[in-house]
Amino acid sequence: MYKLILVDDEQDVREGLLEQIAWQAHGFEVIATAENGREACDLVERHQPDVIVTDIQMPFMDGLQLAEWVRRHAPTAKIIILTGFDEFEYAQRAIKLHIDEYVLKPFSAGELVDVLLKVKSRIESEIADKENLQVLQDHYKRSLPLLRELFLISLISRRLPKAEIAEKSRLYDLDLSGKGYLVSVISIDRISGPWSGSAESSGTGSLRSSGNRQLQLFAVLNIAEEIVNRRGSGLVFMHQDQIVLLSVCHEEGSAAFTQNILNGLDEIRVSVEKHLKLTVTIGAGTESREAENIYISYESAYSALNYRFVLGNNRIILIDDVESGRAEMVRFDDLKEQGLIRTLKVGTSMELAELMDSLFADLEPAAVSIQDYQVYLLEILTVILKVTREAGIGIESVFGASSNPVAEVYRLNNLPEVKQWFTFACNTLIRLISSRRETGYSKLVEEAKTFMREHFRDSDLSIAKVCSHLHISAGYFSSIFKKEMKLTFVGYLMQLRMEEAKELLRSTDLKAFEIAEKTGFSDSNYFSYCFRKTFNMTPKEYRNSSRGG
């Protein structure tokens, strides 16, 4: 059953259509009716209908204005316009608004039913398309290579949670369960000196032209994939104009694993030079024991590649050979910093626990010196102190009255204890920021209410004016106002104006149009309409009843 709203300013038309058409028999439920566009907007927001049948000429907001509003706020709803032969200019606007169907007046109930059934068929067709599992499966299969590549790129770009790696490996049919991981980066050496097209005009030699960079990359990628697949030694993909090889060790024995990779890399290097008449330099990174640290192996492979400026091209450079003796470095990068800041400002205790697990996981497997260890912790502490200061909160409120957080970092040398200390301080800061935010919300709403009570008599009072006075954005204000008041800005403004109108009707002899002006309405007819809508009686009827007339 599809939900439908009927909009027409003539009551007899609405009632006639309701009686003459067996709506439910045709698959529709008329959930509401409206006598103008403004009233219909409220109903659309509340009920989210599938179909809207509306007349064009109506007071306050006509049918096409309503259609324009619906296209912005309920784009999937179908719109049927009721129009006359003499409303051609309306029809032109209707085309631009992508009206689904129209019915020419005068029309019979049968004609409207025919149009409704056409719209119903269209809705069912769209639903069938969305639910067509085969279409989705085919699209997914076509997208799978790209999704795999994007996942592998994210794997070498940053630390991913272990659960996410396992889940996406399963989804993309990738075997990343292993005892060790090593990343290598293959870069095509630049051709020294200008190359003329005549010298390399045919055969594979033409790939040496510097203008064929993408063709060169794809040719190298094909050779690398063929060799890696034959040897069963990893995954190959392209990233930032370079070829990346991710090798996974499935057995214990780091030395044999690394040597097998180097043999495969050398086969790639020789094959590229032989078949493409190009040379490549390959950087091989450090081995990482955990899949979450693959990005560290990539960074070290990229660092190894940079040594070609010293060692020359057309070779394999192993980072452990050029930077022997260096421990795996622990890094507090921009991604971790932004994650911590976000969690402190708007996160939950559960999100904080996950973040702390991630931050301290980097310390556990790494051979970190005491200096690196302390620098890493001080970087975390600096972020916490920065957020504390920006929130206007005293350090003692977070770390305790007698606490010196910097000295505490140097004193603590047990990793679980340090983690617990940071977690406690961060949870305290999260609670304090949240409490201040809620207090700030209430204060802001009270300021808005005061301003509205002082200015609701101005006919041009708008949410924009209130937000300008408060120096905040309209979107932000709307959300907190509704959250605090359980009422929209427009609803509260109408409430103020209606209460003032009641008071003036009770205590004065002002006419309705005068009261409309004094309560912020520029249109006395609209004032009367809103008053009747709010109190179920006209202003005149209310004045008589309040005075016992």
From TrEMBL:
**Which residues does this entry mark as bearing 4-aspartylphosphate?**
D55
- Kindly indicate whether the keyword Phosphoprotein belongs to this entry: yes
Identify the InterPro entries for this entry: CdaR_GGDEF, CheY-like_superfamily, Homeodomain-like_sf, HptR, HTH_AraC, Sig_transdc_resp-reg_receiver, Tscrpt_reg_AraC-type_HTH
Show the Gene3D superfamilies listed in the entry: 3.40.50.2300, Homeodomain-like
The record's subcellular locations are: Cytoplasm
Q: HTH araC/xylS-type domain: from which residue to which, for each copy?
A: 446-545
What positions does the domain Response regulatory occupy?
3-120
| Cell membrane keyword on record | no
What are the UniProt keywords, alphabetically? Cytoplasm, DNA-binding, Phosphoprotein, Transcription, Transcription regulation, Two-component regulatory system
Q: What is this protein called?
A: Response regulator
